[in-house]
Amino acid sequence: MARLHTMIGELTGDIDPADVEVLVGIETDRGPWVAAVVTAGYAVLAVNPLQAARFRDRLGVSGAKSDAGDAHVLADMVRTHAHELRPVAGDSARAEAIKVVARTHKTLIWERTRHIQRLRHALRDYFPAALVAFDDLAATDTLELLAKAPTPAQAARLTTAQISAALKHARRKNVAEKAAAIQAALRAEHLSQPEVVATAYAASIQALIAVVTVLRTQITGLQGQVEAHFGQHPAAEIIASQPGLGPALGARVLAEFGDDPHRYTTAKARKNYAGTSPITRASGKKKVALARFIHNDRLIDALMTQAFSALRTSPGARAYYDRQKARGANHNTALRQLANRLVGILHGCLKTGTRYDEATAWSHHAANVTA
């Protein structure tokens, strides 16, 4: 950073610093380098790598690529198209802290899902009866029993007392009935592998169970950190008042949107960044509206989850979803349109500093239906 400041100082010479504007183009919007450049007072423009690649093709078609050439492309983009590039958001330190813990929390959840799928595939190859016996491979009782009896022969020797103990530890209901059903499934005939192969699979299964167990513990612990950081943010009350948003999901939405009050000038701008609003493609007499496939995966995942949850908690959201379905939209399309509407509601609440109100949020759509 000191070398950069020196270089810029040499280029500006005796010009008054107040009259100097330094623009920085960079293919990321996070990290210590970006924070240092922003703190120095430079205008930092985050350039999507896809934009840079397309701009590079305008300057040459040979396909040549180098770091120096990429730097030249970024500098040229900033010089000629600064008005069309997005400045790095001025999020607060609290929002950055929420982003760190919320993203790590979600990453661990995704990792747990991946390991559960690996566990499922392994069981299908050598112990298909376990998939019949256990509906939820991520459940505490399932992991406990599989760790205790990872081979078909060992599982067949499990007693109802051992199975019942695991079910009680997981606080299951109808323990006796479920224990009998699990024991019957584990002792049923099924396609199997040779003993030596089953033993090898059992070792891999126990390793996967150990990883999943650790991930579950860390996810639970980190969720407390997510909720604690989110609860300290000034906008937490407004965001948590939205239908379908709890502390953990609200933290993810806040983390991905950021809290820069000047970043989204309109609800449309927030919807475009969210990836919930459609894009229009028109050529001649043909004009179609399509879903956006270029978006923030973490944000769209949180918003779609919110929309699905809102169907149970908000009558207005449910009615809006049903109207989209009545028009012929499938489930995913109707859910994305609901998510788009909820983003607009969230934007209005944040701009006005007001909590969510069911009647106000859906009054316009209710009026249209009545009319």
From TrEMBL:
Regions crossing the membrane: none
InterPro entries linked: Transp_IS110-like_N (IPR002525), Transpos_IS110 (IPR047650), Transposase_20 (IPR003346)
Residues covered by the Transposase IS116/IS110/IS902 C-terminal domain: 237-321
Ranges where the Transposase IS110-like N-terminal domain occurs: 18-128
Listed NCBIfam families: transpos_IS110
UniProt protein name: IS110 family transposase
